[in-house]
Specification:
elongated, five-stranded antiparallel beta sheet, Immunoglobulin-like, four-stranded antiparallel beta sheet
């Protein structure tokens, strides 16, 4: 709730004792102080822990190693929150690549790798019913050496939602980059709950990562919609 303060608070701003004083468009007000959400899932905590470790290990690199990472970063580009291309720092590149190396069970590398590029996966066959949720690539990469498959999925969405790929999070661990039918129902249900008639849509992203270099392929995006289980005998 906001309160309009008296003239005694004309120059007051900031937070204290559970309230915040501010000025918006020339109008001063006082509102209850917001502290933000402190709830963090186990998955979020795990990701944050890895990046924290990488931030600490970056500071332990030699000057020559830091310069090498900075030089490699100059040849790469990231994306801003608006989707435009932007330069990234050596520390940023170090964390990005090493995150996937560590997530795949490896040890963070101190020296920058020779980047090879990773081809994106092909289309996938996805089956989503009340009793089944499977994922299978229609083909394997030309060179699957050192590649792992990562599947991300959103929580169940209603029919009115047309795009929710930004809500997709990793389901289960990293998988082999192979033409194999993976049963992801247990991992999905534990993460998001079970899709139902009122929320039948699941938005899915999947990609490959190189476990040696930490490189990530382009993301493939698709949507699964809950279907009825086949009738017995069909």
């Amino acid at each position: 709730m906001k309160y309009v303060p008296s003239i005694a608070f004309d120059e007051m701003s900031g937070s204290a004792k559970g309230v915040t004083a501010a000025k918006v468009r020339g109008r001063k007000y006082i509102r209850n102080r917001g502290y933000g959400g402190a709830v963090r899932t186990a998955a979020q905590a795990a990701v944050k822990s890895v990046f924290k470790q990488l931030s600490q290990s970056w500071r332990n690199l030699t000057n020559a190693q830091i310069l090498a990472w900075n030089a490699l970063a100059q040849t790469q580009a990231g994306k801003s929150v608006l989707g435009t291309s932007s330069k990234i720092s050596g520390a940023n590149l170090y964390s990005r690549l090493n995150y996937w190396i560590v997530a795949c069970g490896g040890q963070a590398i101190s020296n920058p790798p020779v980047l090879q590029g990773v081809e994106a996966p092909v289309e996938a066959v996805i089956t989503l019913t009340p009793t089944k949720f499977t994922f299978e690539l229609e083909g394997e990469p030309a060179d699957a050496a050192n590649l792992k498959l990562v599947i991300q999925a959103s929580a169940p969405q209603s029919n009115g939602v047309t795009r929710a790929y930004s809500k997709a999070v990793q389901i289960g661990g990293v998988l082999e980059a192979a033409c194999e039918e993976y049963d992801i129902k247990k991992d999905y249900d534990e993460k998001h709950g079970t899709p139902n008639a009122s929320s039948p849509k699941v938005f899915i992203k999947y990609f490959f990562v190189n476990t040696v270099t930490g490189e990530k392929s382009g993301e493939m995006m698709t949507m699964a919609v809950l279907q009825e289980d086949p009738a017995a005998g069909e």
